[in-house]
Each structure stands twice: as structure tokens, then as C-alpha cells.
What we know:
The complex is a heterodimer of chains A (155) and B (775). With 155 residues, chain A is α+β, with helices and mostly antiparallel strands. Chain A has two domains: 3-78, Ubiquitin-like (UB roll), CATH 3.10.20; 87-153, [2Fe-2S]-binding domain (DNA polymerase, domain 1), CATH 1.10.150. Chain A is 32% helix and 16% strand. Chain A has a five-stranded mixed β-sheet, with helices on one face. In chain A, α2 crosses α5. The mean pLDDT of chain A is 97. Chain B is an alpha+beta fold and 775 residues long. In chain B, 28% of the residues lie in helices and 23% in strands. In chain B, the strands form seven sheets. Chain B has a seven-stranded mixed β-sheet, with helices on both faces. A five-stranded mixed β-sheet of chain B has the order 7-15-14-13-8, with helices on both faces. The longest helix of chain B has 28 residues, at 540-567.
Amino acid sequence: MKQTITVTINGKAYSHEVEPRLLLIHYLREVLGLTGPHVGCETSICGACTVAVDGRAVKSCTMFAVQADGRQVVTIEGLAADGALHPVQQAFWEQHGLQCGFCTPGMIMTSRQLLERNPSPTEAEIRHGLEGNLCRCTGYQHIVNAVKAAAQAGK
Amino acid sequence: MATTITKPDTLVGKRIKRKEDPRLITGTATYVDDIQMPGMHHACILRSPHAAARIRSINTHAAAGHPGVVAVFTGADVAGVGPVPCGASLPGLRVPHHSILAKDRVYFVGHPVAVVVARDRYIATDALDLIEVDYDVLPAVADPEKALAPGAPAVHPEWPDNIAFTYHQEGGEPDKAFAEAEVVVKQRITSQRLIPTAMETRGVVAEHRAGQLTIWSSTQIPHLMRTLVAMMLGVPENLLRVVTPEVGGGFGSKLNVYAEEALMGFVAMKIGKPVKWIESRRENYLCTIHGRGHVDYYEIAARKDGTVLGLKLKLIQDLGAYHQLLTPAIPTLSVLMMPGLYRFRNVSADIIGAFTNCVPTDAYRGAGRPEATHGVERMMDLLAVELKADPAEIRLKNFIGADEFPYATATGLSYDSGDYAKPLKKALDIVDYHHLRQEQARAKAAGRLMGVGLSTYGEICAFGPSPATPAGGWESATVKVEPTGKVTVMTGASPHGQGEETTFAQIAADELGVTMDDVTVIHGDTAVVQYGIGTFGSRGTAVGGPALYFAIQELKKKIVKFGAMLLDSDDVSFSGGLCVCNKSGKTVPLAAIAGASYRAMKLPAGEQPGMMATYFWEPPNFAFPFGAHIAVTEIDRDTGQVAIKRYVAVDDCGKIINPLLVDGQVHGGVVQGIGQALYEQAVYDDNGQLLTGELTDYAIPKASMVPWIESSHTETPSPVNPLGVKGVGEAGTIGCSPAVVNSVVDALSHLGVRHIDMPLTPERIWKLISAGGRA
Lengths: 155, 775
């Protein structure tokens, strides 16, 4: 039986009737057309689907849409404000922190949380903080550089 | 060939951030799964749970009647669709018929059996469970050496020996060299099966509308795929359009033509609605090609002074159950590159291609060359150990000299250019090799296990001359100056993360004197872009780049003619975006020239209106990048954990267009090499069940599992093309695994360890240490 949920996504409130089994990632992608977050594994290992739920980085492939009822969700599409890139987005661009780009939306969302929790992370702390997000292209080095650069920009 | 271009103050050679990135960092890029169309349906595929079985019956009745399901198709329905193609040909090659859905038998776990098409993917998934298949389960074999043993289950009943082909190649006089050798060292070396794991799985959308079939697919080869799928479906090629939207990584796994690409075309034509199939990660691991899968038996012959004389290889290739596009060709690349960077004048190789009840192997980043490099680099270290020689010295002694190029190898290649000692010496300097060995001796005295491993690799890139490749080996480019002076480049390459929208814009901007913002690079749509070959084998920039360069040179001739007409001069040159009359000094900008060419009020004699040129460039040879990697490792005696303390990569990929992007390619390549060396292995059990069937069980490296990579370069231009480029996409992967394994073996050598097969898991290392080196 469908349930009605109300979710604030990227600052705007939405209300929909959804099946209880609908995953949050599919709600975002297929109901709302927010295709920035990606599905990479369906087992919450790869992190390509990462979004922020009430300010915490969450893998939206292993959360039901109904669990987001009444909560605030931010996706990669909600990061840039008034045409200006978020500092983490800017840093990924400057530092070549992406190649195919598929992991990037999740990687940026996790990096953003990492810097909120620790504004001056060491290299080891960055690598540890990104363990839940897999990238097969970059070897992570330019991602580490991007997070460092974003931390620097935030000072 | 033409001389290498070196110009001061060019965009080529600069670290420039990518034009691709704004759409990728904001979540606005379009991958296949992002495509939504009115009336779109979703397909899910039922796959065999058994590695070998006869299908007694399939009952799709309940699934077809499930609410929301519009169609179910099985092997009987697709009998008119042609087989999945194998593009490789070898003498005597046995090619099993590879139907897009199983007919009466399945050959590996994941073999597609039926497809359900429904209103949405949840319903389609539900309906899969309603299909009843009655299987008669048969014995399976999942290991290539076991498959070749007498009495093994036959993967294909018509070929009970499980041999798909044998292949022999030799050069020089290998038997004589081995007879005369003072030292012969032998070793069995495996390169384990790996799963490419592009972060985006495969996906296909198909639509049949007004007689035209359009297929959107996450592929590296849109044009080749179009040709082959048109043949499979019996659709006129000019009524099939293939679009490659954003592609989330490939690494060779999307250098293929898959059953699902034709199957979705078939479904779209049957149901008259657009259909989407998105591969799950589980399917990706079961059904998208794997890589490597070698068991190699090497013998190296040498003199006591360390001079190498000959190399022999018996190579057993795990092919899997079928040939995908290039499956049987991959091990032949290993043979081509088995001499590495050394003066092996006498070589002999025998390949046995073995069928197994596993998903096919095919090109995965490096495709045969990492296996070859791992083999020869391990053998050089084994020889050094045997002769109590330094591994750096023995390499330097046997390198082909910088004055010997072009160098004809014993395997029939012509190495284009090189200075192999240069990157090795540079890498040795970076790690301060002499002091590093002293530090290692102190560590050993203190009871610590520290190792230093070298790898000096060569690779064959820029695939390649057409006669040496299964399809054409050229690449195409069109360059247009639009009436407003903006530049559009259309490349037949199909980049999917490599960044050619940026590097090709650098080349075009330099050549045409415009800004990079003035250039747009288009790729991956067969309705828009002229026929092309695609992106693989480090060929995007190394073959596609020169195609673009030559197209621009053609266009410049036209620009000068129109410029001369507009300046009313017969002495005109073009540079910096301007045509200049060399007599009067008067100029006319490119935009005005282009505008005049389309307005066509007046035309130069014999010229057509418009400002566009297309060039199909056939490379005269491959290009051969090379380099030296050094890994310094330390092993935890109590856990067997390997820590890479330093990783130094000195790569020579010829002239560098964009150092920032080259760094990215090296880092990514090295980390995939570390994945093979330390973590990854596709494990099938004896029944052919894939035990590493999800990312939960298959260990691709995480950020915390890999070291900082100290990357630098030497720059030896290739004479094969006017840009001097060689290709860099696979270098890191090819150079890496032997450096890491040599380092770990070095750390354990005093325990009597000679060789360890990958992956070097803590368990494997701990057992070796615990057994005092005798595993």
C-alpha cells in the first residue's frame, strides 16, 4: 500500500505517494529526476549514491524513501548556490579529482561532510574518511588533493 | 614521418583543468540510466544459477501474466538474432555459437536465459521470480589447468578437450640459446582473473520509432558496436543509430559487443516502446568480461655474467565459456610483448586457450601486456637472485640501447623509440637506491621485513596499424569552423573519462589560434560523428590526436585560400587565428574567413563553400611507451600485511599534451595494478560459482589502501605521429604489479622465498612467513 511522504529536497518541499519498498535513490532519480546521485553497487559499498539526509552523508541505495519522510535531503544538484560552485566542487575541478565522473557526486557529498567534521584533515584522515566511496579511475590521489584544496579554501 | 612539433607558449603541454568537469561535478551529466523517455519500459534478465546445465523446460506463463509485465522472451524467441560476435581470428580457432539468450544449455553462472519487460524495474524484478526453469545440472570446470586435464567435464560437448586454440610463435633460435645457456631459471607465474569494475555498470536504452532503431549504450566503441549489432539484428546499418552518452569508466570491459545490446534492440522492436536495461553490480560481476586469467610457465636462459639469451613461455589462457569480441586475441598480445625492454633475440611461446565454465575473459586495462610484463619482470628478478646480481644492474645490462631504434624484436614488432635506462636511472635517483639498500640491510638486521622492487616495463599502444588489428586501426576526426568562427571537433574516438574534450581542444586551439572556450569536442553519436574506431589500447590521443592534427592541416589549406582571396594577395600565411598578407601586413581573422566561406559571395578557384575537413589517419606503427616503477614495501611479520611505503613511477609516454591528465592516468593505472598485486581476485569454486560476486567480496582498492604515488616522466617523442605522443592509459597498470611483487619477494628472500603469486593477501604472506618461507 502506498504511503504519502513529504521530503524537503535541496530546499524545496515535495509530497508524493510512494511504495514502501521504493529506495530513496530511485525516488530521487526516477520520481524527482535528480539523476546526480548514481547507483553503483546496491550494497552500500561504493558510495556513488551518497546524499545528505538531515546533514549526514547517507547511501541512498540502502534507505527507503519512506524513511526520508519529514527530513531534509541535499543532493549534488543542491550544492552550487546562485551559479557558484561549492568549494568542494570547485576543488575537484581544479585538482582533476575526477575522470569518468560516475563516483564524483557521492565523493563530493562525502568530502563535504568530512570537511564539516574536520576542517583541517591530514592525508590519512582524508583517505580514512573516504573509505566508503570507491573510485576506479583516479587512484584517489587527486581526490585527496581536492579535499586538501577545499580545506585550504575554507580557511 | 613528420617531425615532432614543439612550439613555445602553446596550450599543448600545460596543466589545464578539464572542459568536461562542470557537468560532472554538478550532477547534470547524462549517463545511460539517467535517460527517461515517455512510455519507457524496463527489462530485467533471468540468468542461470548453474555453471553447466541442460535446460529441460522454461515456463514463463506466470511471469507474462504478472500485472505490469508486457513481454517475456526466451532463447526460442530470439532464434533469428545472430550470435554475439568474436572479432578475433586465429588459425584453427574453435568458436562456439553464442546466442544472446540460452537455447537448451547454459555454460556459466549468469548466462542469460530470459528477459522480462515491465512497466518499471521493480515489477520486472518481481516477475523474474515467477519464471520456472527446469535445469538438468551437469558437472562444470572453472579452472583452466583442470579443464585441460584428461577426464575434465567438457564445457562444450563438441570439444571434449576444452581447447579452443593453440598458438605457437618463435623468433631467433630459442632451442640453441637454451642449449648454450650457462644459467636457466624456470618459474610458474599466474596472473589471476580480475573483474574490471567500472563504477558505472553497463546499461542499454533502445527505441524503435518510425523505422529507426536507436541504441544508447555505455560502450567504448559506438561505431563498431553499431555495425555488429546491425548485423546481429538484420537491421540496415544506416537505420541504426548508436549513442554513447556519458560513460562511467570502461577499462576494456566496454570494449565489446554484448548480448544485451542486441537484446534490447530486439525488445524495442517487438514492444514498440523504448526499453531500458541497467546491469546490477551482481550481473556486472557475473556477465561482463573479466580480465587476465593466465597460468604461465617461463624459462629464461642467460650467461653467468647476466646477459640474457632466450625466453620461453607456455601460456594457459582461461578463456571462459565463450569468445567475446577479442577474447582469444588477448594472450597473443602477451606473446608480442614478452621480451619487454630487453635484447631477447631468441624467444618461443606456446599458448593454449582453455574453455572453462566461467564468464569470458577479454581486454582489461593493459590486455595481455600486464601479464607479459609481470612475467618478464619476475623472471629478470629471479635471474638476478640466481646470479646474486643487483636487479637494477641486470636490467641496465640487458636493455635495448637508446641508439638501436627502431628496434626489431624477436616477436616481430618494431619498437619506435626509447631510452630505457633513463627512467630507471631517474627512479633510482628519486629513491636514492644506494642508501635505500643500506636502510634495507639495517631493517633486516633489526628483524624488519623491508623490500625494494623494480619494474621496467614496455607496452604496445596506439592500436594500431589496421593490418595488425581485428578491425580498422585508424582513427578519424572532423574539424569545422562554424560561420561565427567557433570550432567544432568531432572525433571517432570515444573517451569515457580520459579527457579528450580537453586535450583535443588544446590541440585545436593551438593550431587554429582560438581559445579553448571556442572549441567544442563531440564524440559518441553515430548520427553526428563520422565513423570511428573508439577508445581503448591507449589509442584515444595517440591515434585520434594525430587524426585531428591532420584534419586541421587540411583545413588550414582552405583557410589560407579564403584568406588570400579576402586579402587579395597571393602571399598569405595563417597563424594565431589570423591570415596575414606577408606583403602589406593586412590581416583577416578566422571568424571573418569562416563567415565568408559559408556566405560564398565569392569562392577561391576550385574551392567549395564551407569550412570543414575530415581526416582518417592510418598509423604506420604502434607506439611503445616505457618506464620504471619502484615499490618500497614493509611487511608486518605478525599479520602478513604488506604496506607500500613508497611508490615511484617514472613513465615515458612521449610528448605530453596535458600533464595534469597524464598524472591522473598514471595514478589510476598504478592503483589498478596495486589492486591486482595485493587485493583482487575473481574466485570461482569448483562448481563454477563466483564467490566474489559483489563489491562486498571483491576488494577493489579504497583510498586508505593505496600509497601516495610519486609520479614523474621522461619524454622521448614517438616518431610514429606528428604530435610525438605514445599513450598513457595503461602504463600504470602494466608497470605496477611486478614492482610490488618483486618488492615483497625481496623482503622475504632471506627466508628462501623465490616467488609468490598474486594477490599478496595477508593470509598468503603470513603463511609463508610462518612456514619459514616454504609455502
